[in-house]
Amino acid sequence: MSSYIHDTISYLKQSSPAQTEFYQAAEEVLSSLKPLLDRNPKYQKHNIIQRIVEPERQILFRVAWVDDRGNVQVNKGYRIQFNSALGPYKGGLRFHPNVNAGIIKFLGFEQIFKNSLTGLPIGGAKGGSNFDPKGKSDNEIMRFCQSFMTELFRHVGDTIDVPAGDIGVGGREIGYLYGQYKRLTGHYEGVLTGKGLNWGGSLVRTEATGYGAVYFAQNMLAERGDSMAGKVCAVSGSGNVSIYTIEKLYQVGAKAVTASDSNGMIYDERGIDLDLLKQVKEVDRARLSRYAEQRPGTVYTPVENYPTGRNGVWTVPCDAAFPSATQNEVNAEDAATLLKNGCKCISEGANMPSSAGAIDQFLAAGIAYGPAKAANAGGVATSQLEMSQNAAMLQWTFEEVDAKLKRIMENIYRTASETAKEFGQPGNLVLGANIAGFRKVADAMIDQGVV
């Protein structure tokens, strides 16, 4: 059976060249499936593996817009609609200069199984552009978003494909995208999630991914007779996921001591000042160096001073780590340092933040390791809760949504944990999450025929 998986990866490298992140994501999932495929030949009979690694639809388009100087700019736009066996396509839009087809495909592929694990009726998709919102005026971002949606609106809808935000796409961008969708279609519907609270958004959506990662960590530790109380935590990033991971850590009695951005990192031994971090990042949209300037005693380390080939955040001794920035931010050397320094719990808020070499070390060490597709599913789960509220023309309270999120994260943990035990590898949540997510989608694909 391993040769079958090897053949699939070889096929992808030929049919989808130069998409390294996509191969990595596919191999990570497929290598975990061997026990399931060995046990049940129906998945091979129906050729599910080769079907599931091919998106149902790939949309690539030009985005032309005019900057504030009157110059015409051009970017690439993507929407990869990967799998709709369980429901309408669901997944974020990422605006970042490193966006390419391989990154969007890896994100969309991961989204299939993440969405499956939530237990909610949503398929997997992802999209975005190599547009960089940093340094752009609000008017430039508005014009870009309007141009982007002028193409995308043909391919989305509240029961077809419901995009959300991701890196570079927050409430401002969702607002501009939604306004253009409404202008073009005349429909006021739940076609995007992450909307403003006064026009269809859901409470807790902003906080959901970070809160969910902490809830997942709590579940992992509880099964080991431990808790988050008193834990010193290293957190990477300083966007929504990181900020609200830090917020929830304080609420459960833990302390976060790091944050980072593309320029560098801060280490605040007393605990990150959450109000100051929110001011710097959410209001001022400034670099973390400003945090250090305004809070004496904070150690600021620019990226160029990180250990060669390493992420400085993971050199800080901690009890628990929450990678919450971007893909492949924890390499094998970082993993070795975390383990050496006593880290016993890792809950991934970002998508595929750990390299294959890092994951191998975490599993071998037997620590509580929550892979991204399980640990960071709170964001998309709450997006679906926003879809439900939109469909019913209701708005639930913060407490109602947070309680649903907490329950969903507990169910995801239980599903992954019980599946790992079913296949003889208790505690291996990578295997448990991958098999549980895949099996549900694969069975639906078989039920629906060759489509």
Short précis:
The chain is of the alpha/beta class. It has two domains: 2-187, Leucine Dehydrogenase, chain A, domain 1 (Rossmann fold, 3-Layer(aba) Sandwich), CATH 3.40.50; 208-370, Rossmann fold. It has 18 helices and 13 strands.
Keywords, please?
451 residues; 18 helices; globular; alpha/beta; five-stranded mixed sheet; five-stranded parallel sheet; 2 domains; Rossmann fold
Question: Would you kindly provide a written description of the structure presented here, covering whatever features stand out?
Answer:
This protein is α/β, with parallel strands linked by helices. The protein folds into two domains: 2-187, Leucine Dehydrogenase, chain A, domain 1 (Rossmann fold, 3-Layer(aba) Sandwich); 208-370, Rossmann fold (3-Layer(aba) Sandwich), CATH 3.40.50.720. 48% of the residues lie in helices and 15% in strands. It has helices at 2-15, 20-32, 34-39, 42-45, 48-52, 101-117, 138-152, 171-185, 208-223, 240-251, 274-283, 288-294, 332-340, 356-365, 372-375, 378-392, 398-422, 429-447; strands at 57-66, 72-83, 89-95, 123-129, 161-164, 232-235, 255-256, 258-260, 264-267, 299-302, 320-322, 345-347, 368-370. Strand 3, helix 6 and strand 4 form a beta-alpha-beta unit. Helix 7 packs across helix 8 (171-185), helix 11 (274-283) crosses helix 12 and helix 16 (378-392) crosses helix 17. It is globular. The two termini are 24 Å apart.
